[in-house]
Amino acid sequence: MARLNARIPEGPVASKWSDYKSSCKLVNPSNKRKLDIIVVGTGLAGASAAASLGELGYKVKVFCYQDSPRRAHSIAAQGGINAAKNYPNDGDSAFRLFYDTIKGGDYRAREANVYRLAQVSNQIIDLCVAQGVPFAREYGGLLANRSFGGAQVSRTFYARGQTGQQLLLGAYSALSRQIALGNVTLFNRRDVLDTVLVDGKARGVITRNLVTGEIERHAAHAVVLASGGYGNVFFLSTNAMGSNVTPAWSAFKKGAMFANPCFTQIHPTCIPVHGDTQSKLTLMSESLRNDGRIWVPLKKKDVEKLRNRSIKPSDIPEEDRDYYLERRYPAFGNLVPRDVASRAAKERCDAGFGVGTTGVAVYLDFADAIKRKGHDTIDALYGNLFQMYEQIVAENPYETPMMIYPAVHYTMGGLWVDYELMTTIPGLFAIGECNFSDHGANRLGASALMQGLADGYFVLPYTIGNYLAAEIHTPRFDTDASEFTIAAQGVTDRLKKMKESAGKESVDSFHRRLGKIMWEYCGMARNDAGLTEALYQITELRHEYARGVRIPGGFDEYNPELEKACRVADFIELGELMVRDAQQRKESCGGHFREEYQTSEGEALRNDERFAFVSAWEYKGREVAASLNREDLQFNEIKLSQRSYK
Amino acid sequence: MNFTLKIWRQKNVEAKGELVTYDVSGISPDSSFFEMLDTLNQTLIMTGGDPVAFDHDCREGICGTCSLYINGRPHGPVKGVTTCQLHMRSFAHGNTIHIEPWRAKAFPIIRDLVVDRSALDKIIQAGGYVSVNTGGVPDANTIPIPKEKSEAAMDAAACIGCGACVAACSNAAAMLFIGAKISHLALLPQGRVEAAKRVQKMVACVDTLGFGNCSNTYACEAECPKGISVVNIARMNREFIGAKLFSEKEKVIKVSF
Fold it and tell me: N or C, fewer C-beta in 10 Å, chain B?
């Protein structure tokens, strides 16, 4: 097992980033315009990076599969964005934000990266306000903050329940300005299907124009992947239908290592599954846990009556309710981190106390909060979420408790990157959810928006310059070069082969089957026997897929089934890697819960001696298992301890 | 539940389109409209047919990707929701449902129900931003903003850019879309600096893209899934007139080193 070097700068953690910025190489403005950068994805990370790099004077090409960059799935983030501003004077600091993030990630993130994230968090808020992001404000006209996801300080900035939307529109407007100025060229409705390497460095991508079907070649001096997470490997998730791992997976196959693939986040407050035709899951913001109380009935006979609808939840007296989070975690109550809340819900449902017609749901009850704060206050805080719930479930949460159940939401794993956010392929960078770097084994609420924008606005623009400073003599690339021809041909051949299989089963049907395997064996709880079974079933599925997928339509036209076919093929391969990673990590940490490794009270049991490392997987070929490398994690600032929310 | 669907099919922008009838059965009332279409497409794929192309992505009502003219109304019969948040319980068993794409000169059809809305991006590129670069901005609390102003800006900024306002308008005007962006920024001190220039540039851009003009029918507001108010159009008009009448001619400042 090779050891990876993250190239973390020397010196105290608090000054690493400022020291780096003062000593990294710079590119002169007249050279910047001779350098091309490709950015894949237009979510918070991609749009902010493309806009900032364009502002600096680089020539940027930005790609998205959506019809407009404004539609990337960052737009759906509801709750907020963290920053260590300490506006409420409640004792917050960069160190505390850093500490909470490391602890929340169950000590599986890299200290230096997380400290930098906490340090730049304040600049993000300043910039967003300057762009015109309408954050919530107090009557005095200053910015409002709220406590979020178990933090003991109020450090979350928000724009109603649409923070992701407003931040993304801010980044999109900055991007639009650079497009208008000619510094950035937009390629919408494009799937990025391969990364092109020339002499071992990332020099371009192969894309498919989703409208015409044309396979296109694009060259650049550096490539930035900001293609988001891979939660759709589970088929049902809160990701957008088109969210996919394909750009990252193509990079993996070209030599970029994939880190901690088994670290996935299951979000506790989602609307439960209604039936077999369900296509995706909807998240209800975690902020609801600030005022909602989570419970299930204490008695099995009440569970029965609720399921056959002979009683209503409000008929159950207080003493017959089990507020299990408040019972198990008196210090944090309903505000325990996501992984803890999710597992506790699963535990109650598995024990037969789940509610709803399916028995796979728990209550999130606002009755007390409405009594305490009044209907109008609750409406001002959560009105749009209540409305959304009512539209989907056809029940009014003011009158009857919401039903919720955990769902796949975010993936902490991703492409391995060093301190400079560069993958193991020189010139290939990964930012935002696409990389693995900042959230360890569990991400805290309101930290995804922070990380995406930190990477794109404030980190990458410096670190990519340090790389590109050595590229100023490299002329622009010719896409007729053999490397591009071979890669483009590879993509064409792959699509042809897939389509020729002329099977009997649709892409969606395979995807659903993959999702079931992943959810069952590599979801909220995992064990060795289950993972072995999953490996067997996924391998079978992969072979079946190669023989038996049916893809209608042609190559040279708008063909969503063909798009999905590529994505699902990659998800199947990724699923296998996730299972292998979950199997090798013989400990429980954050979102990764191995049933064999738990305390007597059912809490996650880490093994720091053996597993305080990042697993980084290296592609070895089609029929060969990926090999494992590791980056050992050093904790100098923070003492490792058992997370306790009791 | 069972439904008869009459869906607009069109191979590409040049091809001639037509309404084609399909029957779907066994649909759960809890299914979303798109899950109903997914079911139809799965059947079409398995029987050697050609699945219906439609735009969709987040399926949470926020990305603005989805469209569809359903029984003559953008985003269907329920007020304040996008098509992806529409559920089959909003229809009666046995209903016939007409499904068509957005119809507007500025939105050419790509295939079936999918249209090209990049004109909306072009409008934003014309000036829908505050011209600040990353870095070098003041502390976020330097300028207090009255809560009412910031709330009104947020009301306007909630636009998801789906284009329902254009589809609903008898003139295929984009006034609500552009009015919302102009209002959002004009209401905030950060956006005021360029307000006069912005409104002129964005209005000029709209005129080149094939959108129609406003005749005050308020169909846009009625059909907007996010409840964006026509007040924003009035504010845009005021900004526009103010800019044309009172703002100084833009001087070209030549800088020489």
Answer: C
